[in-house]
# Entry
Amino acid sequence: DGGITQSPKYLFRKEGQNVTLSCEQNLNHDAMYWYRQDPGQGLRLIYYSQIVNDFQKGDIAEGYSVSREKKESFPLTVTSAQKNPTAFYLCASSIRGDGGEKLFFGSGTQLSVL
Amino acid sequence: AQTVTQSQPEMSVQEAETVTLSCTYDTSESDYYLFWYKQPPSRQMILVIRQEAYKQQNATENRFSVNFQKAAKSFSLKISDSQLGDAAMYFCAYRSALAGANSKLTFGKGITLSVRP
# Structure
């Protein structure tokens, strides 16, 4: 079945530690996105990529980094510079990354700080 | 910058009744897309309905329909014959249709809908 796979489902970070959230899609979509969801805040865009080896900052990119070495994969690293990382992280993809096209979402990763 | 406002944090509806969820947005653009996404307790985001701003006709998808008022910048979602499975958080979202615009989908803060049996 085609879709987006996020792993792990739950992740714990220690102080000063970098952690990486995985996002893989087999939909052959060009565009991929990372969103952060906090209670009462809705979804906020962290990074997005419309093509391999290219990505753009979203509204809250500070303390995060990404890579897009393969079309299928768009991992997100939460660095130690992100002082408030506890949140629910959603990865999404779409065919081209424009207009009225639908976003397909993964099932999310809940990140918590120990 | 575009903003999306969902002013009601929570709503409740009796099963089989109709409920309307409100959304307003602010933009200087004339061409754009509007969306309603549903997030049930599983936290999986699901597209409910989509509206193109250049279309005057309101979009409908089975029990879900929108009331799109472009001049008022209002985009409400009506759920008819509410079912227990409609209980979820609903997000309104905006995306520019400008060529070359970034891929940003701007979300509102969401509204939690509960359905009473």
Q: What stands out?
A: Chain B has a mean pLDDT of 93.
